Amino acid sequence: MVRFAVIGTNFITDSLLEAGAECEGFKAQAVYSRTMERAKEYAGKYGIKDCYDSLEDLAKAPDIDAVYVASPNALHASQSIQMMEAGKHVLCEKTIASNSRELKEMLEAAERNHVVLLEAMRPVFDLGFAAIQENLPRLGKIRRATFQYCQYSRRYDHFKEGIIENAFKPELSNGALMDIGVYCVHPLVKLFGKPKEVYAHGLKLSTGVDGSAVIVAMYEEMQAELLYAKITQSALPSQIQGEEASMIIREIPDTTSIEIVKRDGTSKKIDIRKKENNMYYEVKEFIRLIEEKKSAREHNQYSVWSLEIMDEARRQMGIHFPADE
Fold first, then answer.
1. Sheet harboring 210-218: ordered strands across?
2. Residues of the chain with pLDDT under 50
3. Are residues 8 and 110 in the same domain?
4. Non-local CB neighbours of 70 within 8 Å, separated by 6+ positions
5. What is the Cα–Cα distance from 156 to 176, expressed in whole angstroms?
6. In a domain, 43, yes or no
7. What's the total number of domains in the chain?
8. What is the reported pTM?
9. How far apart are CA 221 and CA 237, in angstroms?
10. Domain range holding 37?
11. What is the pLDDT of residue 145?
């Protein structure tokens, strides 16, 4: 049994706890919030026993094995390292760190303390992504991948009214790339590795973060376009093009079906039966790594490559976070 504490009391933590309740070996043990009142309110919603308003006390707690970190991106590194230095495993929400330098420090802390650090990158752990991987050989030689995730944010409506919420604050290491663009970058590197070159162009908002952008990634024999936005909504699927066929992917962050379309126009649709809440699969893998005393090194390599690409994309777009200093 892995006893979890959660840092963060928002909708994504709701999803984590709901997914965890379906996982064998998961126990929700504690809630941290900046105020005890909020911690108790949130814990009561899920019948969770322990509450904390001190990260120091949480780190010292002997009855907590692992911590799920769902605070703003700018806090991920410091909070995760604090928990790992206390011997606790960490499942950290995406994007795992503000930049690749922070991630390197986090990985060093994990190694030093012999604990598991894993990015909660839900798309690459679920059965939809497995179906993409399994069917790639049917496409022939891969020449192009176009991944897109453009989701109009209700917070953008507030932004236009002059109300700046966390999602658009550079001091919290946020913006479209860090929030949803990462859902295009991470699957790309897990499928095809780190590209040779990256070119990025984006639309910056008044706060200095990106509202939308395009990243072109060049490989030896293929190219990829990553399109993401928080200020528009896309009606088009993602796709991977090979010399023999193309694969149409519905919802890259939560793939429920793919379609193989051959050059002659014939096609086959593949529906994926899986858990409705696909955070289940990341929690299951995290628990497996802990219980079997396995390394998360392979998973973490994809996180490293992703952040290296995102660092370079932000550099080209002129997007700077205080955490980059």
1. 197-204, 210-218, 223-229, 142-150, 238-242, 245-249, 257-262, 267-271
2. none
3. yes
4. 6, 7, 8, 10, 12, 13, 16, 93
5. 11
6. yes
7. 2
8. 0.97
9. 23
10. 2-120
11. 98
